[in-house]
């Protein structure tokens, strides 16, 4: 038919061309209508048809992703455990540091007067020596000047010792006690068969403690072993 169409005029060729398109279109529409009418093209799959199984490659990818997540979770748990341990150690160290600082502050408050106390001990020693230099039986009413002076020294010594005790400074007089190298300083040995060896027999200078800290050991004579 193509040679015949080629021999026709342009107008006829145009008619033939449009006519063939219409026939083709009508045939296509008819086929589509028939397919829809008889349910051939869009028929749903049977109800008892089994679903298509997933490819094995997807299962492998899922398993790998799960293993990766589990490994990351394990690492995160270890990191959390390490951080928690460091945090607890830091809290303990800070608490220990706080307690040490409080102790140092308290010691500075209590023992800050230690040097001053040592200097005042010299005054107490001078007062004690002055009182010991005057025999007690020499203090009589017929000598009022000496009596008043002696009583004044006694009152001064008593007041000074009261101030010492108020600030935690106490005397250490170990006469008759067992020798203790932490509180006593042996300056000589003493022979006395009536006392056991190591006993303090003579106290040449009284010692002092400030809040249980020895700031001056007592100078003593210790009984030696026979």
From TrEMBL:
MF (Gene Ontology): adenyl-nucleotide exchange factor activity; protein homodimerization activity; protein-folding chaperone binding; unfolded protein binding
One GO CC term on file: PAM complex, Tim23 associated import motor
Protein's cellular compartments: Mitochondrion matrix
InterPro entries found in the cross-reference section: GrpE, GrpE_CC, GrpE_head
One GO term of the biological process aspect: protein folding
Species annotation: Ornithodoros moubata
Primary location: mitochondrion
Key words of the record: Chaperone, Mitochondrion, Transit peptide
Known function: Essential component of the PAM complex, a complex required for the translocation of transit peptide-containing proteins from the inner membrane into the mitochondrial matrix in an ATP-dependent manner. Seems to control the nucleotide-dependent binding of mitochondrial HSP70 to substrate proteins.
Similarity comment: family membership: Belongs to the GrpE family.
Family matches, as HAMAP family: GrpE
Alphabetized Pfam families for the sequence: GrpE
Full protein name: GrpE protein homolog
